[in-house]
Amino acid sequence: MSRRVVLGWVALVAVGLVAIGLWRPWDTVPNTVPNTVPGALREAVGPIESIPGVVGAEVRYDVLHHDAKDGDTAVAGLEVRLEEDLTPQEAGRAAGQVSALFTAAPVPGVELTRSIGIAAGQPDESGTAPAYPLSVRTLDNPDLDIAVTQAYELWQAGAARASDNSAETSTPDELLALADFAERRGFIAALATLDGTVRYEPGIPVVVDVALVRLAVEAAERDGVESAFSTGERGLMLHQADDRASTTAALEDWLETHAVAGDPVPYTLFSPGHDTLAEGWVGGVAPPEPEPHTLPLPDGTEAWPADAAAPACTGADLEPALSSPDAATGARYLSVRGRNVSDAPCAVDGVPELAFLNADGERQRDVTIVPTAPGVVAGRVVVPPGEAAIATLEWRAMSTANDPDVTTAVEVVAVPEADPERLVPRAPGLADQPPAEGEDAAAGGAPAPLDVLDGAEVRVGPWAQAVAGWS
Prior knowledge:
Elements: H1 3-17, H2 39-49, E1 54-65, E2 72-82, H3 88-104, E3 110-120, E4 134-139, H4 144-156, E5 161-162, E6 166-169, H5 172-185, E7 190-193, E8 198-201, H6 210-220, E9 225-231, E10 235-240, H7 245-257, E11 266-270, E12 276-281, E13 318-322, E14 326-328, E15 331-340, E16 346-348, E17 353-357, E18 368-371, E19 381-383, E20 388-396, E21 409-413, E22 421-423, E23 426-427, E24 446-447, E25 457-460, E26 464-465
Parallel strand pairs: 2-3, 6-7, 8-9, 10-11, 18-25
Antiparallel strand pairs: 1-2, 3-4, 5-6, 7-8, 9-10, 11-12, 13-15, 14-15, 15-20, 16-19, 17-21, 20-25, 20-26, 21-22, 23-24
Helix pairs in contact: 2-3, 3-4, 5-6
């Protein structure tokens, strides 16, 4: 995988971690009060504005937590506007210099998170806040130069709006042309039309697939289709303008007979109310059924001894714990670990039983548990004393905008007949918080609620040998 592809994927994840509250569109940021911004940050603005290609710069500083003894926790957001007629290389070079100056400005005694927003072009003033045709935001990202270079390339290749990891065009034809350009340049990017009728997301860290974009464009042109969404992970999703059976039948007929190159592509038809109306495979070509298999270990990893005499682990043998939640674009990850706290090997063979609880301790409704991947089955794993087995969880991101009833704890039954353990997901490195009622007092890090809501689908893997780096 090329350095550009890897860094593009890192940028996708980094953008998803930015605190939205830091962003202030260029023309709406008030002049910063001098005595509220540390001098080194304030003094960095002048040299930044002197960089060739920079139109102006402004810094915002907010103290999140004041601690006279151990130092403040704060965020500093730098907003920079570049000239719009720069070449991508000139823009990237300017962004790199901006990043170097801003990150080098010392702010001693403060736990500081820095973000940089780069904007260019004439803003659209029709909304509640100006929207720039080019806008890139990063959080402590040393590769801002690469992110801005890609954004300028997408913008100058025809995007009406562009960032380092996404772009929008006015028409489907322009979207196809931009997808072709992005594929040839090896970019990882989400693409869409401005009106949202056609959207594409890579889903996993792969270069833009112009064939999937073309499929979405062609599908969006069919009668009865309100919008088409294509993703490398979930295939083609079409929302119908109505839920009539005749509309569904016509679209199914087109999809089942439509030729598609490359790997099989699943499709789903949704009603205007997001109910599933039909599912299948484009062109009628489904992938072969996978052979049942256990989770393989990475090359070079020595498997634990398969002791046939080892007894099954009991609830007293396994101490369950949760990893820190992780995220990528559109996906969420977590793992359950079961550490053998006994003085002898014991065996696990199955999947932990899980329940997702809200703040009131109630179970989220209609959560579907499915295998982590097609064909993956549980295998007998003998866990040595002191070692930990791992079971991975994955789900699609869910909106919490109108549903604050998020998951605050996971109830885990590690093995059959074990007592359920209520575990709170936490994010180490954030400010410590008191443990919840009934939780181990040694638990550290801030609680990290999960967007596993009513109706979620969670992919859960079987117990497997834990390997360093797996999460």
